[in-house]
Write a structure and sequence with these properties.
The protein is an alpha/beta fold and about 190 residues long. Helix content is about 35%, strand content about 20%. Strand 3 and strand 4 form a beta hairpin. Helix 2 (about 75-85) packs parallel to helix 3 (about 115-125). The protein starts with a strand and ends in a 5-residue tail after the last helix.
């Protein structure tokens, strides 16, 4: 199973959090599953999982949404990596990013967590920060609003209008990362939009 990749969308469980900025990672894995006509099933690692393929004959994708709250995502991620025999270099974590403007995607491998508690917990549980991240920009709140409140709010009307494109682009970035590698994905998705 050397070609398997674990693709994790971070977020919080339950209908209260589904429409919030913090759950954009889960929207992206939903998009990846939807493109392939796959649905999520309960997994003993305390996550919902869809096993699929990048394309026929391509890499196996284990799409996952932890059932835990964002800040304790590491346990399910590490459990799934162990269950499927996937090393950290084939783990991709998709998450919201305050320090990137809305409608922007950035990819990286390793580095710090940038204050993102979900990423911090995944790095702790995997024993390394050296996994890929697809960082989906949500921007910072205007004025003095607490960023912790901002991420747990529902998307605004202007954001909702552009959200399907952003989620689709992030899903494209994940597919390209798996298929062509980090550099190719960065070159395409870090470029200004035409």
């Amino acid at each position: 199973m050397a070609e398997a990749w674990l693709i994790v969308g971070l977020g919080n469980p339950g209908p209260r959090y589904e429409p919030t900025r913090h759950n954009v990672g889960q929207l992206v894995v939903d998009e990846l599953a939807g493109r392939r006509g796959d649905s999520f099933k309960a997994h003993r690692a305390n996550a919902r999982v869809a096993e699929t393929w990048l394309r026929p004959g391509g890499a196996k994708l284990v799409l996952a949404k932890p059932n835990t709250f964002m800040n304790v995502s590491g346990g399910p991620v590490a459990g799934l990596a162990k269950f499927y025999g996937i090393e950290p270099e084939r783990v991709v974590v998709i998450h919201d990013e305050l320090d990137i403007p809305f409608d922007t995607i950035k990819l990286k491998v390793g580095g710090g967590h940038g204050g993102h508690n979900g990423v911090r917990d995944v790095a702790r549980a995997l024993g390394t920060p050296d996994f890929a991240r697809v960082r989906v920009g949500i921007g910072r709140p205007a004025g003095r609003q607490d960023p912790a409140d901002w991420v747990l709010e529902a998307w605004g009307p202007a954001e909702r209008k552009n959200l399907p494109v952003l989620v689709g682009d992030a899903a494209d970035a994940v597919e390209q990362l798996v298929d062509e590698g980090l550099l190719a994905a960065q070159q395409k998705h870090h470029a200004p939009r035409a």
